[in-house]
Amino acid sequence: MTQNLPAHRFSVAPMLDWTDRHCRYFHRQLSRQALLYTEMVTTGAIIHGKGDYLAWNQQEQPVALQLGGSDPLALAQCAELAQARGYNEINLNVGCPSDRVQNGRFGACLMGEAALVADAVKAMRDRVSIPVTVKTRIGIDEQDSYEFLCDFIRQVSEQGGCDMFIIHARKAWLSGLSPKENREIPPLDYERVYQLKRDFPHLTLSINGGIKSLAEAKAHLQHVDGVMVGREAYQNPGMLAEVDRELFGCDRPAVDPVAVVRSMYPYIESELAQGTYLGHITRHMLGLFQGIPGARQWRRYLSENAHKPGANVETLEAALALVADKVPTAV
């Protein structure tokens, strides 16, 4: 029996160019309970872009939309559109340190503008009934004291009404480091996030950054309300197969990765019929058999063949033939 635990107990982080709708559909085959996040979508793309930047599949639920922006009116407009499309949560990005994001006046640089973040959250909350959350860092540049972090959280929660934060347990350097380096070089400070939860017990706080196993996730859950995993969940998606049982108390049977691949076939066939290339979907599935003999052959075959004209589910079957008989009966 599922213990009816909240979805934010375990979530897969928003990752630009990675957690697109194909990735989320695939991840949902592995975990029914985890909260999935979109890539960051800017308000400008939603309001002025020619594509449908809110496209998703209802079978992905629960899904949170991460917005990038700083104009409260534009954010409120996008939040309202997202709620109408069925998203379960709106998340404001206050953590991305890239130059492009800073030039647009959003992302991590907003940590230095707590009043603006509070106004933005309030504007969204006034327009939607679904949760509005904030993903942030523990500091930026030289503004990295615990007092600075507390002031930011206090202002956004009290003036903006935000009661749920995801804290990436690293500071961000707004100049001098690339986004990749900002995910690796600033040291992790989990204890600072734990202290934040002790000092703001009424808020729902999730922790993010450097988490590589469900054992680590369980340890964090002794101190905070939720755990968000990024690169490890993407590169080793098999870990998601254990989330429902290990973290949500579900009695769901063990997930068979071969069956997971085949469960994607109706979706893949539908997408191919609409002009999607197979490789756009299978690129998210390459790490599924990590640690299993034949995993390298699986990755290589798909990498070499999924982008070819006419690639289809038969391509996947050929790739499965290289690994399927080596998969343990329970994974």
Characteristics:
331 residues; alpha/beta; TIM Barrel; Four Helix Bundle (Hemerythrin (Met), subunit A); 2 domains; 8 strands; 40% helix; globular; NADP; FMN
Could you characterize the architecture of this molecule?
- This protein is of the alpha/beta class.
- It has helices at 21-30, 43-48, 72-84, 99-103, 114-125, 146-160, 179-182, 190-199, 214-220, 231-235, 243-248, 257-263, 265-273, 278-282, 295-305, 313-320, and strands at residues 10-12, 35-42, 63-68, 89-94, 132-136, 164-168, 204-208, 226-229.
- The chain has 2 domains: 7-248, Aldolase class I (TIM Barrel); 257-326, Four Helix Bundle (Hemerythrin (Met), subunit A) (Up-down Bundle), CATH 1.20.120.1460.
- Strands 1-2-3-4-5-6-7-8 form an 8-stranded parallel β-barrel, surrounded by 4 helices.
- Helix 5 (114-125) packs parallel to helix 6 (146-160) and helix 15 (295-305) runs antiparallel to helix 16.
- The protein starts with 9 loop residues before the first strand and ends in an 11-residue tail after the last helix.
- The longest helix is centred in the middle third of the chain and has 15 residues, at 146-160.
- The active site is at 96 (proton donor).
